Amino acid sequence: MFKQVAKQVATQAGRNFSTTNQNNYKVAVCGASGGIGQPLSLLMKLNPLVTELSLFDIVHTPGVAADLSHIDTKSTTNGFKGSEELDSALKGADVVVIPAGVPRKPGMTRDDLFNVNAGIIKDISTSIARQCPKAMVAIITNPVNTCVPIAAEILKKAGVYDPNRLFGVSTLDVVRARAFIGHALNVDPQKVEIPVIGGHSGVTILPILSQCKPKYTGSDADIQALTVRIQEAGTEVVKAKAGAGSATLSMAYAGARFAGSLLRGLNGEKNVIECSYVQSNVTEATFFSTPLVLGKNGIQENLGLPKLNDFEKKLLEAAIPELKNNIKKGVDFAKN
């Protein structure tokens, strides 16, 4: 069962995972003791490309690491606790996944999380610059639209910024879209292909339903309703948990899927494609999520905007001003 899950999160839907010519990689999870971090760390422990799993958090990490170390996969697991051990946790990492931060509670927007989570991203990015400047960095911490530009500015200050190696994880939007569409069409969600572009909050999330495979055949009203549901799916979970947290299990799955895709690209696998929020010149927004080909050096190719219909063009027009404000907020924080 566990091996089947590992294979699933280490591949894109419908592809067989290949272990030929396999290399070994160190993955660091920053925020490993949290609601996302623990299941994410479990899924990374099951990934056959991971040789060393380095877990960091401000509390409980040695216990999480000890627990995971009893799982019969080849990777070693080490736990690091407290800011004084952050450098040790990150040293030599090939991939850094960052779910660290305060989760959303009912009534909170992603902007409400900004002050605390922005400081966390600043500290982790500063340590990455010292200890693993060539790592692939995947940011889950909300608000993603703002935290990724913060990390970029911190890495720029340190003189180690490579835009091909910094990613905002928007994979959960794709995962949700596939789930909702699959159930609506009564097909296996794993066989649904849909680009979700833009950013990772509210109106910046743009599911391109016109390019869905198999074709989504809903009415205009169905398309609008499904678009809004995908955009507001995070709030749906926050409300359903009624104060007990936000999307943790689905985000851990999505984060592990994206980290697995980064590892597959590092390992030389061809045609590894994921949507991710990255530095971009595809639109007026300087960071934007589009389908990317991932390779040994991170972004191998940005595939750009998929074909948009008139409804989707209006969604894009509404998203750009919001994205630009989110990005400016992050840049201003990092510079000041």
Tell me briefly what this model is.
By secondary structure, the protein is an alpha/beta fold. The protein has eleven helices and eleven strands.
Q: Could you walk me through the main structural features you see in this protein, from its secondary elements to its overall organization?
A:
- The chain has 336 residues and is of the alpha/beta class.
- The protein has 2 domains: 2-168, NAD(P)-binding Rossmann-like Domain (Rossmann fold), CATH 3.40.50.720; 171-335, Lactate dehydrogenase/glycoside hydrolase, family 4, C-terminal (L-2-Hydroxyisocaproate Dehydrogenase, Chain A, domain 2), CATH 3.90.110.
- The chain has 11 helices and 11 strands.
- The strands form 3 sheets. The chain has a 6-stranded parallel beta sheet with strand order 3-2-1-4-5-6, sandwiched between helices. A 3-stranded antiparallel beta sheet has the order 9-10-11. A two-stranded antiparallel sheet has the order 7-8.
- Strand 9 (272-279) and strand 10 form a beta hairpin.
- Helix 2 (37-45) runs parallel beside helix 10 (249-266) and helix 5 (114-131) packs parallel to helix 6 (144-157).
- The protein is globular.
